[in-house]
């Protein structure tokens, strides 16, 4: 009696993998997949997975710096520095006008997610000493 073929076997045949080599091809678990959107990729969990709700909530609420077309490369050093400088420029401009500083929090959130803490502390010290290289 021949058993019905599984979907994994069918997909291997569809991709041109002979049945004799099918056992050598690694298949990935079904519970996770990547879903790409216009700006980013995020992990999507199938309802079949048995992950606790608290971890799912953390994954859904996790936010980081979005893609910035001015910095398309993997090295995000300039992006980090530019957002740090933009944050301080924004603070300086809005404090001079006496306005609310909440729009500047965007820049702070981005540079804190991209920049190492040692750089930020060094730049803060340089701003206090008046020796920071950037124009704020």
From TrEMBL:
Domain of life, per lineage: Eukaryota
Pfam families: COX6B
Keywords from the named record: Disulfide bond, Mitochondrion
InterPro entries reported in the protein's UniProt record: COX6B-like (IPR048280), Cyt_c_oxidase_su6B (IPR003213)
One GO cellular component term noted in the UniProt record for this chain: mitochondrion
Record-annotated membrane-spanning stretches: none
The keyword Protein biosynthesis is annotated on this UniProt entry: no
Compartments where found: Mitochondrion
Position of the signal peptide: none
Keyword Transferase: no
Protein name: Cytochrome c oxidase subunit 6B1
Natural source organism: Solea senegalensis (Senegalese sole)
């Amino acid at each position: 009696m021949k058993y019905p073929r599984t979907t994994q076997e069918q997909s291997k045949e569809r991709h041109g993998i002979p049945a004799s080599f099918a056992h050598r091809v690694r298949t990935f678990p079904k519970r996770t997949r990547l879903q790409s959107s216009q700006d980013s990729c995020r992990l999507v969990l199938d309802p079949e997975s048995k992950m606790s709700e608290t971890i799912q909530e953390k994954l859904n609420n996790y936010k980081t710096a979005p893609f910035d077309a001015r910095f398309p490369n993997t090295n995000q050093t300039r992006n980090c520095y530019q957002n740090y400088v933009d944050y301080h420029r924004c603070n300086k401009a809005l404090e001079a006008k006496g306005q609310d500083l909440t729009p500047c929090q965007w820049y702070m959130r981005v540079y804190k997610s991209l920049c190492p803490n040692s750089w930020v502390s060094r730049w803060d010290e340089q701003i206090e000493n008046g020796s920071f290289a950037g124009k704020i």
